[in-house]
């Protein structure tokens, strides 16, 4: 995946992102917070460095799901799109 540029976005297209580096890790999380935030039995995550991600449009909003964590979503269509936490330190 080195040198490959990933891009994606929410369901309606108001939020788009570009990723310029490899994932540090990927996991399926089934903690109660992820299950409630996504109305799903588990959520697939890939973790990237802050500096490798660029949100191209400004349709994203964040919700502080705990004092140290913010869950990003599209303000227009509601698609959960990101998770940022101060307790997760990149390897
Ligand atoms: Zn959207
Ligand atoms: Zn979780």
Give a quick rundown of the structure.
The chain is mostly beta strands and 91 residues long.
If you had to describe this structure to a student in words, what would you say it looks like?
This protein has 91 residues and is mostly beta strands. Helices cover 8% and strands 44% of the residues. The chain contains one helix and eight strands. The strands form three sheets. A three-stranded antiparallel sheet has the order 1-2-5, with no helix packed on it. Strands 6-7-8 form a three-stranded antiparallel sheet, covered by helices on one side. The mean pLDDT is 91. The site of one zinc ion has 9 residues, from loops.
Give the key terms.
about 90 residues, 1 helix, mainly beta
Give me the strand/helix succession.
EEEHEEEEE
Say how many strands there are. 8
- Fraction in helix: under 10%
C-alpha Rg (nearest Å)? 13 Å
* Main sheet record: 3 strands, antiparallel
Terminal CA distance: 17 Å
Q: If helices are DSSP runs of H or I spanning 4 or more residues, what is the number of helices? A: 1
Described by the principal axes of the CA atoms, the overall outline is globular
Q: If you average the pLDDT, what whole number results?
A: 91
Residues in β-strands, percent: 35-45%
Helix/strand layout:
Blueprint: E1 6-9, E2 16-19, E3 25-29, H1 32-38, E4 43-47, E5 53-55, E6 60-66, E7 69-74, E8 80-85
The chain binds zinc ion (ZN) (2 copies).
One zinc ion binds at residues 29, 31, 33-34.
């Amino acid at each position: 995946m080195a040198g490959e540029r990933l891009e994606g976005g929410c369901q309606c297209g108001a939020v788009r992102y570009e990723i310029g580096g490899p994932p540090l890790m990927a996991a399926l999380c089934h903690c109660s917070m992820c299950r409630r935030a996504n109305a799903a039995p588990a959520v697939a995550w890939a973790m990237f460095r802050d500096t490798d991600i660029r949100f191209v449009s400004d349709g994203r909003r964040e919700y502080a799901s705990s004092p140290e964590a913010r869950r990003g979503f599209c303000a227009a269509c509601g698609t959960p799109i990101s998770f940022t936490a101060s307790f997760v330190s990149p390897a």
